[in-house]
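Annex B, item 7. Sequence and structure tokens for protein A, then protein B.
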Amino acid sequence: MTALVYTLLIFLGLGVFFLFIHLVMGRLIRPVKPDAEKMTIYECGEPTVGSAWVQFDLRYYVVALLFVIFDVEVAFFFPWAVVFGTTNKLADPDLPEGQRAALTRELLPAGLPPVHGKLNPDPIGPETARQVGWIAFADIAVFFGVLLVGFAYLWKRGDLNWVRTTAAEIQAEARPPIEGEEVLASAAPQMTITAVHSPTGEGVH
């Protein structure tokens, strides 16, 4: 435990040292020639317009969340591919016994209790490996199918369209109006003239 604490302290000290030594070296070596143009706010090469206290478009967050979700889910394919490749090698009936025993030790998790009193379990046979491979293939097919269903749902909703408002307007124009909407549309011009005021200051209704 003491060695682990010393290791963490050394790692922390080296991290802080390398962080501040580069900042100090940059402060001492770089030329300092400020002017009005250099002191302006820089944001992605574009001049700032308006106040910073504005509401960002929700599409930024939607696209970022979708990327994180699908990126994390795709990361689960890598450990599955490792296990699936090992089971395919074990399914080969011509595999030498030494390699079969080594692949079996790689496939089984470390730290498991002895199986039937054996520290080294029996090598996995070709038939067992073939069954495990088919189960793993069905498992990843269901997993990937769920991802495709979610992707199709987002595509159908239009969340993958960057300019979603334009697409929504096009769909709204193509859709035939409902009977209730025609009545509201005909009554709208009559409702807009109620805000006219007379010269005496009294409202005209």
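Protein B:
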Amino acid sequence: MHGLTGRMKVLNPPALLKRLFLVLAMVAGVSVQAHAGITSLKKGATIALPEFTQLDGTVLDQNTFKNKPVLLEFWASWCPYCARQNAYIQKLHEQLQDSDMQIITVSIDKNMTAAADYMAKHKYTFKAATFTPQVKAAFGEIKVIPLVYVIDKNSIIQEIIPGEMFEEDVMEMRKYVK
């Protein structure tokens, strides 16, 4: 046991409980990324990304994302799970800002001033857009937040991740940078 001390990772109780739940769900045969009812989109499907209107009103057209991997997150300023995850998204954004991966987030807030104030308060610099009719047409009604899509450079959905992600899981998204 003495020799293992340097390699053991200590998890805090909430993280330990969350991991235990995920393991139990997998053992019971429940998919933790089950998409039924969350989205009509499926992993492996091709998606045409719409243009995105950022919180400041600027528009990101489809060419912004052409031939680039994209991490897309849906969130809201009032969501405590999003608040924790967005800190990890910011860290990933800072690490990847010189790469070809595009990180775009979409606020589902009804009040875009609240979303913009949230971004300013936390000093987030990742791209943040509004939930426009074009975004809704592409992704459907958002029923779970946070909700992350990872789309490869060929516009194929590689991951659909509903719910809060651990920091190490967000950082693992670096694997899509080529």
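Comment on protein B: The first strand starts at residue 52 and ends at 53.
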